[in-house]
Amino acid sequence: MTAQQTQLQLQYLPPDLKPELLPQHVAVIMDGNGRWAKRQGMPRIMGHKRGVDALKDLLRCCRDWGIQALTAYAFSTENWGRPQEEVDFLMTLFQRVLRQELREMVKENVQIRFVGNLNALPSTLQTEISRSVAQTENNRGIRFTVATNYGGRQEIIQACRAIATKVEQGLLQADEIDEAIFEKHLYTAGTCDPDLLIRTSGEMRLSNFLLWQMAYSEIYITDTLWPDFDRSQFHSALRVYQQRERRFGKV
Prior knowledge:
Radius of gyration: 19 Å
Helix content: 40-55%
Number of strands: 6
Strand order of the largest sheet: 3-4-2-1-5-6
CATH architecture: 3-Layer(aba) Sandwich
Strand content: 5-15%
CATH class: Alpha Beta
Number of domains: 1
Order of helices and strands: HEHHEHEHEHHEEH
């Protein structure tokens, strides 16, 4: 990051936030799209559309304020159980947003990644994902990770299988397995663990999201529904985060 970029971010940052206490990595569980739409008298799909706008604004806010990484829980392995019409709409929405926003992400130096079992997604969406990742892989701005068809337990199981295969093949000894080895086999390898998890709509659970990675993440719950989560809401979350004392199990 250049000195000029750092200076711009300090100009954007609200004066009551301390740059040295900002989280490096923020994760979000974007809950409440359907309830938001229902309150507005709209179909659930309109809530998802508005939710995309909220996510785009948060991504730009993180970039403006100097936060290095944002991970969004877009579609879980359990979400396949939703009505087929809604699932089909979400797949189409993901594909359309990627196609429409790719040029802007390249321009804004965003590096986009996807984590999850991507092989189960529609082939057309997989194509857009591959294109987006390839065209932004050399960007050095904010790292934007989208968890799609993601499940924390699934991720841990696939990591165990990959490590077990290496042990069977003689490429790794069982007593060599430690946290560092394990983390290299996770979807999120190469990205620091989230410092802050934000969940909207008041639900107080992890919902199978980044179970390994959030061992020491600070958790912030707000009753605000995701489509209404804006910069002022994010500002409030960061103020609370900066008041926390992070001891990581120490005194």
